[in-house]
Design brief:
2 copies of one chain form a homodimer. Chain A is an alpha/beta fold. The first copy, chain A, has 2 domains: 277 residues, Alpha-Beta Complex (Spore Coat Polysaccharide Biosynthesis Protein SpsA, Chain A), CATH 3.90.550; 81 residues, no CATH class. The first copy, chain A, has 12 helices and 15 strands. In chain A, the strands form 3 sheets. Chain A has a 5-stranded mixed beta barrel with strand order 6-9-7-8-10. In chain A, helix 4 packs across helix 7, helix 7 crosses helix 8 and helix 8 runs antiparallel to helix 9. The first copy, chain A, is globular, with a radius of gyration of 21 Å. At the A-B interface, strand 12, strand 13, strand 14, strand 15 and helix 12 of A face strand 12, strand 13, strand 14, strand 15 and helix 12 of B. Strand 13 of chain A pairs parallel with strand 15 of chain B.
Chain lengths: 364, 364
């Protein structure tokens, strides 16, 4: 029994197609957040790869991304062989992305257990992360389980989705629960209620399931997507694979895995996870996660602060000098500079939209 | 009588040696404030030249500057012949500078009336400026007068020196007074008292006197400087002029004309001037003098403000995007960016000192 357990393996897919507009002007179309060395010496994607490679029960790692990032990922990311990079023709949100990855895995081994990981999240606490993953992997045995990972909130964060779990439906005491509902990003009042209740954890966007389970769920809840995936599956390894993929992908409607599958299913489990997690979703969360200097500033590059507190200042290839400024994010790049109040970082996305509408491709 | 008056002329010298560190990073050692097109399409120095050239009783215009700016002034400033550029070997404050200019003028014509003008001040109201200058010029006739120009304050400015005039000693009713004292930049409380009193006007740093009068005053109050100037005078037009100038300049102690001469003299007059004047002494005065957009921002270059009021944003050759920032000065240049609270612009000078101490010549 111990021996069988020891042989159990998981195949991981890292979703690396995101654009990361909220990290403009450091993130660009050609270099989105997951490819930035934003926290330390390695890109977020490389950190995600390395995190999984260290786990002895990880059998294989795939990266799924768009055609625009394929080359840069092949060139920059170490530890992934080129034939493990799956290219989706365009971004259609997470359900089609996960479906495409699942059918590639099914073709190799229909009994695979699949783990899904965003490329651009921060995880601290490797042992706890590995334990949670092993627990989820084992939970798939003999179960058609779709497994999510809930993070115990350390604040009533309004930037995250929440998972409400059912305290009475405890699959592994204190560790695994059945999921009651998924909640979208709440307002502050609701978020506080969530956290007080003890029944709502942050939705980390990490999933584990058997390949067969997720493909069945897609067949059940997203039959059109399932049809397209079947057509693509039949073309796998054929010379017309690429044209079939392109044709089918045109037909596919964008949809999130949360809305398309998870909210409609009743076999959703949640591993109550103890590792530290952040989606590093804005300049402000980057600020909060980074070490501060004596004045509470996070600085990188050639920066002089004559006076000022709690700023994030990032200067790329030039001098940035600051006097008498507090609680501001300054991102200085060779062709574009952003100065944004720390309480307005969510609006960077709106700014990027505005730049798109104005045809400012040269800075996007 | 009218005819004689009409023939009276003034020779102007523009002091253009200043470094203008308070306009960093736009101003640099190689391009100080007077050479920036900071208010409009022409540099401050060119505006000063043009202002004087329009006046029909201006006979000649000299520029006095340092060796580092000689070439750029010869190349860029129109309307000044190269032999009217006087080079002082190094900056020794205004008294030696004015003394050197005066002896050059004395060599041409010892009866010259001399006007002294800073190169980097803003003057609005040409007719009023011209009238004040004519009044001062006429005041020198038959008098050993050292004439200053007082500007009626529109605020209790703490960045200016003040002239206290003697209301009882009215030389021209309502227009020209004897000067009682000069006051250094006051604190806010004192500045308010000055303005309330009606006896204190801003010291514009513009002067008119006969060349013979200022040289006599230097002889009386600054005998060492006078000795050096005499030695330089004797060398004028000789092949050893340059070496004499260098030798004597080494001996000269830096001193302002205010402290070295004016505060010690009792023949000081003040023309109560009606033109608008600013020394454009900081980014904040530049902000105040510039036209604002609907959100109260002064913007120049490629700037997007998603939300924000009362900012000065200057973007040179790249995009600057701002969200949720008020009352801030942002100066973005190709190799250095400054972000400073509008109430801290005076500290830019301290920043430049810091950069000097750190050996950051490449951005100075």
């Amino acid at each position: 029994m111990v021996k069988v357990k020891g042989k159990r393996k998981i195949v991981c897919v890292i979703m690396a197609g995101g654009r990361g507009t909220r990290f403009w002007p450091l993130s660009r179309n050609s270099r989105p957040k997951q490819l930035l060395k934003i926290l330390g010496d390695h890109s977020m994607l490389q950190m995600t790869v390395d995190r999984l490679r260290k786990i002895n029960f990880v059998e294989d790692i795939y990266i799924i991304t768009g055609p625009d990032l394929e080359e840069i990922i092949k060139n920059e990311i170490e530890g992934i062989s080129p034939d493990r990079i799956i290219v989706e023709p365009s971004g259609k949100n997470t359900a089609p992305c996960i479906g495409l990855a699942a059918l590639h895995m099914a073709a190799k081994n229909p009994d695979s257990i699949m783990g899904v990981f965003p490329a651009d999240h921060l995880i601290i606490g490797h042992q706890k992360f590995s334990s949670a993953l092993r627990m989820a992997m084992n939970l798939t045995v003999g179960r058609d389980a779709l497994i999510t990972f809930g993070i115990v909130p350390n604040s009533p964060h309004t930037g995250y989705g929440y998972i409400q779990f059912d305290k009475r439906k405890e699959t592994v005491p204190g560790k695994v629960y059945m999921v009651k509902t998924f909640a979208e990003k709440p307002n502050e009042r609701v978020a506080k209620r969530f956290v007080r209740s003890g029944e709502f954890l942050w939705n980390s966007g990490i999933f584990v399931w058997k390949v067969s389970s997720i493909l069945s769920a897609i067949e059940l809840h997203m039959p059109e997507l399932s049809q397209s995936l079947l057509a693509i599956y039949d073309a796998l390894g054929k010379r017309y694979y690429h044209s079939t993929l392109l044709d089918q992908w045109e037909l596919i409607k964008p949809e999130s895995i949360d809305y398309g599958i998870l909210e409609k299913s009743d076999n959703i489990y949640m591993v109550k996870s103890e590792f530290q997690w952040s989606d590093v979703g804005s300049w402000n969360s980057f600020f909060e996660l980074s070490p501060k200097n004596g004045m509470g500033n996070v600085v990188k590059g050639d920066v002089i602060v004559l006076d000022g507190e709690n700023n994030l200042i990032h200067s790329n290839g030039k001098l940035t000098a600051v006097i008498g400024i507090d609680n501001v994010v300054i991102i200085n790049t060779p062709d574009a500079t952003l100065v944004v109040s720390r309480d307005r970082v969510e609006d960077v996305r709106e700014l990027v939209n505005l730049l798109e509408e104005s045809g400012r491709e040269e800075v996007l």
